[in-house]
Amino acid sequence: MVFNPLNQSEIWLDFCNLTDINPWDPSISKFIKPEKDHMLNCIPKLFEHSKLINGQLFLYSNGTFKNDVEMGCEMRCLFVKDSWHLYYGSWITVKNGTKPECDVIEIQCEKEGTLYHRFWHAQVYRKSPIPPKPKPPEKYDVHIFLIDCVGQTQFIRSLPKTVHMLRENYDSIPFHHLNKVGLNSHPNGFGLLIGKMIEHIPRSPFSKGHTAQYSTATEACYTPLDDEQYIAFRYQDDGYVTMLTEDWPGGALNYPDCYGFYKPHVNHSMKPFHIHSEEQGLDANQLKGILYNDTCHEPHTYLCDYLKSFLKAYPDKPKFSITWIITLAHNPDPNSLSSTDDYFYQFFNDTRKDFENSFLFVMSDHGSRFGTMRETLMGEIEDNNPALFLSVPKPLRQNANLMQQLRTNSKELITHFDIYATLNELVQVSYFSFRKGIGKFFILTFFFEMA
C-alpha cells in the first residue's frame, strides 16, 4: 500500500501510545558511568585579585601590594547593544568598595605596564534602591531554568539528588511526554519563547501536516525579532522585570548566524559576559583559563549566581527570567550532567525561599543529539523527549484540584507550544486568581483539562 499525501482522510496512525520509559533501561547500562563534581578537588592556578560582593568591588593583593591604589586596577561596564554586539563604558579607577552601576563588568590591573589580572564579573544592578519594607508583588514570579540537550529520563538518571530536591521541597511535577518540535535549540527555542513554528511538517502516514508561520527556516533566521511575540515582551508589558542569561555568545533564537534582536530585549542580560570574550579575540583555551579551569569555576555557576542576584534584587516587583545553560550537557558524553548533581541540589536548596512565589519550569529544549548512545533506540527516545518539571507557588500547592489537574496533564503529550501558551496565560495570574474553590476560572493550558 502506498501513502497518498493528497488524500486528506488517509492517515495510517493518528495517535501515540504513551508509555513510561525506564531511565536505567538495560540497553544503555554500558553507557552509564556517573561522574563526580569536576570542581570538587580543584586548586586554582590563577589568583583572583578582584571579587564583586553585594554590589561592591574588592581588591586582593596576595601580599604583593601595600594597598588597593598601588594595585593599579580599573574597570568598565559592558552593555548589550543587540543579539551579537555590545558597547563599552569608560574605564574608571577601582578601589575597595567601588560600586559598578551595571550588570557586567570587566576589570584589569597593571603593574609597570604589564597586565597581571583580568576578569569579568556579573551582578543584577538595580538602579532604584530596594524599599526599606518592600511590599510583595500581587503577581507570581515565573522562571524558566533550562539545561540544553537533556532528555527527561537522562535528567532523572543524571541528577537524582536534584530531582529529590525538586519533588520533595518544591512539589515539582514531572511532565513525562514533552516532545521536541525541531532538530535543535533554534526551532525549539522559537516554539518555547515565540510560539511559532519555523519549519513545515509535511503530510505523512503519521501526520496531517502543519504549515509553519514562516515560509522557510531561512526567513525566520533573517527576520529581526524586535516586533515578534517574544514571551519576555509580554511580561514586560504587564509590569514584570525580565532577565535572560546564557553561557555562550550566541543564543537559541539567533543560532547559528541569525539576526536575533536589534536592541536589548530584556531588562537584565548577562550576554556581554560571553560576547566580550569573542570580541577580544580570546581563544577557547584562554577563556577557559581566565574564567573557568584555572580559577575553579564552571560556566553554569556564573549563570546560577546571576539568577540568584536577580531573585534578590526585586523583592517588590514581579519577575520573569530565562536561564539557558548550554555548554554543560551539549557534548557526546552522556554522563557529563551527572557531575553537577550536588551543585544543583545545593542551588535549589539555597533558593527555596526565593522561588516560593514562583511558577518554576525546570526543563530542556531537546535531548542529547551526540555520541554513541544517541544511536540507540533509548538515545533516540531521549532526544525527542526533553526534560520538564513544573512547580507552582507554595500557596497553590494546597489546592488539591489544581495539583490533581497538573498531575493528570503531566501524562499527556505536549510540546513547547503548550508551554508558550501556558506562559502567556500565567502573565495574567495574580495571587487571587487561584483561590481555593474558583477552579472554574482556570484558563491556563497546563491547569485546564487538555483535549
UniProtKB/TrEMBL annotation:
Pfam families for this protein: DUF229
Gene Ontology CC entries for this record: extracellular space
CDD domains: ALP_like
Taxonomy, superkingdom: Eukaryota
Coiled coil: none
Descriptive protein name: Sulfatase N-terminal domain-containing protein
